[in-house]
Amino acid sequence: MPLDVCNRWTHLRKILGRNGPFCQSDYEAGSEALKFVLEECKILIVGCGGLGCELLKDLALMGFMNISIIDMDTIDLSNLNRQFLFREKDIGCSKSETAAKVINERIPGVKVKPYFCKIQDLDTDFYRNFHVIVLGLDSIVARRWINGMVCSLLNYDDGILDQSSIIPLVDGGSEGFKGNARVIIPGMTACIECTLDLFPPQINYPLCTIANTPRLPEHCIEYVRVLLWNREKPFGDVAIDGDDASHIQWIYEKSAERASQFNINGVTYRLTQGVVKRIIPAVASTNAIIAAVCSTEVFKITTSCCTAMNNYMVFNDVDSIYTYTYEAERNPNCLACSRVPQELNLSLESQLQEIIDLLVNDEKYAMKSPGLTTMINGKNRTLYMQSVASIEEKTRVNLKKSLRELNLSSGQEIIVADVTRPNTSIFVLKPPSASNDPQSVSASSSSSS
Amino acid sequence: MNRLGDLISYQKSPKSPSSPANNYENEKNRKYDRQLRIWGDTGQYLIEGSSVCLINANATGTEILKNLVLAGIGSFTIIDGSKVSTEDDNNFFCDPSTSLGKSRASVSSQMLLELNPDVSGDYIEESVETLLESNPSLFKNFTTVIAANVHNEKTLIKLSEITWEYNIPLILAYSIGFVGLIRIQVREHPVIEAHPDNTLEDLRLDRPFKELKEYLESFKDFETYSRSEVAQIPFVVIIYKFLKEWQKAGGKSPNCIPTTFKEKEEIRKLIRECMAKIRNNVRKKIEADTTEIVIEGEIELDNFEEAIRSVNTVLLPSNKIPSDTLYLLNDISVEKVMEGMVENSNFWLLVRALKLFLNEKSDGCLPVRGSLPDMTADTTNYVKLQQIYQTKAKEDAETLYSCLTSVCSSLGKSMDTISEEQVKTFCRNTHFLKIIRTSPIWSEYGSNQDDKISIKTATKLRELVNCADFDGDESDDLIFYLMFRSISRFFTLYNRYPGYCDDLVESDISTLKSCFKDIINDLGCANLSKDDFIHEMSRYGGAELHSISAFISGCAAQEAVKFITKQFVPLNSILIYNSMSSRTSTYQW
User: Fold this and answer.
1) Its family (chain A) (predicted)?
2) Which of B270, B267, B303 is nearest to B381 (CA)?
3) Does domain A9-200+282-326 correspond to CATH entry 2.60.120.460?
4) Alpha-carbon dihedral B311, B315, B321, B324, rounded to 10 degrees
5) Which CATH number fits domain A342-430: 1.10.1740.10, 3.90.226.10, 3.40.50.2300, 3.10.290.20?
6) Which residues of A touch B25 (CB under 8 A)?
7) Complex ipTM, two decimals?
8) Interface test with B, best of A6, A7, A9, A11 (most B CBs within 10 A)
9) Is A391 helix (H, G, I), strand (E, B) or coil?
10) What pTM did the predictor assign?
11) What is the pLDDT of residues A244-296, one digit of tens each?
């Protein structure tokens, strides 16, 4: 039986079609907002896992007919306890393609377009297309990359932000019974890069503990994973595949062996797999909750019926149900969204390695493997680059050279590329004597732009 | 009757490193891997044995069941007498474009079953009102009963009375417009495994047991150790040593611990002084030694740093019993359990045994938990220390088990229903025991009756409402409870939502206003006029926005999981979700 369009969306019609005392002051009730949602609004969902599946269902049932979804992963058995659009028969298939097919078949009129690829495979012109981008990711690097992308799309005219160039980001995250959701208006409110300290610190066991003084079962597993695997090469010259049961089995047995040598209890197969794959525990309900908060915010932003969240909510239901919503603050010198040129306050006697260390270790930047280039006498020169093996080999010698030896002087611009952002960032070399404020590592009073 | 009688009920044998991994790596374990890491095999076992009842397969209802079916509940039963209508287009598990006019219970149960072949499902194509009349005892068969957007007051009262009588957790979930509400009812729900987030360690440094004391005192003067040895002394040993020095210097008793900032600072100062001495000695040795290759750099004393940081969190009175545990020890059920007349009798027997343990078998401290945080130390010292705590924990569990045996034998009860493994779990968690007892939902409706519970509920509720600030930007979201109550009153009278039809919104506003007034009167609250909220609720016309339903459903499903697994602490007893200001509030009465 075909469904009369007039009979659809009765719930939405009431919410959007009637004025209320708590509507955003400039909201005009009527059919315009619903029309925009149904016909014009384009949403991008990044990630089609626990959060992504929920986001897709929520938004499609709320009238968003034009949705694109990106995910580079295929479906695994362990996804099925929460990624409800997938069945056992789908194992091994693309997540985004499977989810899109299910939603397109189930909800009349919706057009979900899947992208079975990496976020880096799509360019500025692609991302520019959307009214809102929603993130359902577990990777911090991917979040930072998308954040960098939407920040790079911002247009400034005479220093004034062009509002039409803003693409709001709605970001969700979950772990066990805890989660968070946030709204980012790039250039206006705190972005991912402004608040890197909100991410939980990564657990890294010191190498000397792993090698010499293991105490926990995790230390034994890390020993096998980090040291023994490459030494013994049990399956030839291959990297560890966390999804290969024989790999996990080998690591588990060796870890158990090492643990018993040291009288350490508690190495289990489950723990081994958890440590090797860095597994984050997950349940359906937390994902549903966080995705629901994100979807509500998308609805508020796109229809303007209510004020969007300002701007960060934490959720925890280990003990009762608890949420806390607060305004995360912008970093005025944020590398991604501030437009303040970044200064490197290192003396010319410093080695190039020290710049790399600063970019990696300073939590403001927290880069992964920065590549540095510069212009000398109008020519591009690669100072150091890790990502390409042949270039790495050629430029490695530079790491031990001082900045002066590399012919770098005060005011020199160093162009930095890293996996955490889609575009390069420009840093200006300002040795302490030449800087206005020798105490600060990055400038706050620079007038150039 | 004895729903929670078997508290931890089942423990799969723990897997030793030598056991073949194939046992673990079966398909079910792989499918549920991400959640098994949260509630373990015992939690999953209980989930797989549960049967959940859902009343109303609307968007809120089906989303709750979806979350539970994915988790692998044993079975569900949907009670819904309505037909699929065009309004179900906000419901993923009910497709009006293909199933218009069919039974909503049937259509949605079929779609939900597709999610997980491990789950069985059933439906009753009748309204809850009819069932409560014709077959009320049906409800005692469920592990948990969930009602989605049930508004009729008489139905709510009846449902609440039946589930209260059988002590079956009842979860009411509501989603209207931008607002949601959850109300939990459970007469008594004990929690042994609360999984608290931030816990203080149980290290007994003020009252070390014999083996711990011997170990702690086996260390010589720190300055006599070599450079590498001294950096590997566990921080608990360091704190203990300076606690003793501090006690000696101040002429204090051996159980005395620093309580003020000043006293704690005195201990930290002693530790710092010792660090300085050690550093100095190392420096001198390096200067004096010209023949050997000098190890560069200053000695790293992470363990001493850890000791300084931990003074605050580790030096606690070990015989202080947390208030929730104390509350349980003094609960009337501990006495009543001897008469065999209480619910959750296994839990209360354990608490009674704990009381015996505290009175006769320990120096006033709860059983040793047996856990040791990671710390800078060499393997030998760490493992040794860990074994000392673990051995003592095992002994304490055995002692508690013998207490339990004597409690049971004086009661003429057999011990069969409580395993040693359960006693161990109980002992690991005696610091975190919780009991949830909500007020009954029917008591919110009975302020005119003179039964004690209703009067108590009404008093508390009245107090909350009268003290709340309902004005300004930070207006108390408790107002939405009153709004939901008013909508229920409206629904009970007219069998529809206020504002349901476009042309009746205005007149419904004034009707809802009088319902609100009645509710305020019934509760005996001071006069309150909240026209803007009444207008807002009327304009929703009962609309269910899918994302609001999904939020409420996620929370409701999570609470059901807590009841089923007997792990984590449930909500007591009301949650209000205001998505306009992106916040939640909880209340208890």
Assistant:
1) Belongs to the ubiquitin-activating E1 family. UBA3 subfamily.
2) B303
3) no
4) 0
5) 3.10.290.20
6) 245, 269
7) 0.93
8) A11
9) helix
10) 0.93
11) 999 999 999 999 999 999 999 999 999 999 999 999 999 999 999 999 999 99
